[in-house]
Amino acid sequence: MRLLVINPNISTSVTALIEAEARRAASPETALSFATAQFGVAYIETRFEALTGGYATACAAAERAGEFDGLVVAAFGDPGLGGIKELFDVPVVGMTEAALSSACLLGNRFSIIAISHRIQAWYRECVAANGLSSRLASIRSLTSPLRDIATVQEDHAARLIELSQMAVERDGADVIIVAGAPLAGLARQLRGQISVPVVDGVSSAVKHCESLMALQPGTATGGSFQRPPRKDNAGLPPALRALLE
């Protein structure tokens, strides 16, 4: 099985974190490849940044069309996920939907630990879009400025643990989701330090996508996720235009 993992932001240092966790999680028979957005922002925390990240992800995937059997959108909030699902005839899985699915299998209510206060409103909308607002215990986030997006885990380790414990003790969380690619792999460190299960988005997305590839459920030729209809277009990159035609 060939699995492509795309980082929708431009930070290659974050792609390295994603790759490390994906390789720890993936089955031996899964051939992993990775891509980083060629345009956009260093990390996504707003709706507009998610809009650009989704388009960058679609472009990166189009350039590699035919080279993968499954695709992971490796940013919390799943930028562009619905449209990318329409574009490809293979399983496409987002970090958010995968992490939420894992959390719902492990407990009733979950809390999300995020890297930015600004990101909270968008994350709440993402939870609502997945129909799970009633199971969201809380979103807690860092409030201090980030020195480097690639070193968030090291710079804020103690605070991330504290936020997780607060979500359990004060908000009633049964499961903790550590949100965002910059926190990829942190769940492994928190296990044993937090009194409830801890879920990572990258590893959840990899494992869920592997299971869908193995299940071979077929592709959408009807319904709302069938391929977009042919129509005149202009200004699109050649690889994307080829997929649409």
UniProtKB/TrEMBL annotation:
UniProt GO molecular function: amino-acid racemase activity
Stretches for region Disordered: 217-237
Family (UniProt): Belongs to the HyuE racemase family.
Protein name: Asp/Glu/hydantoin racemase
Organism name: Pandoraea iniqua
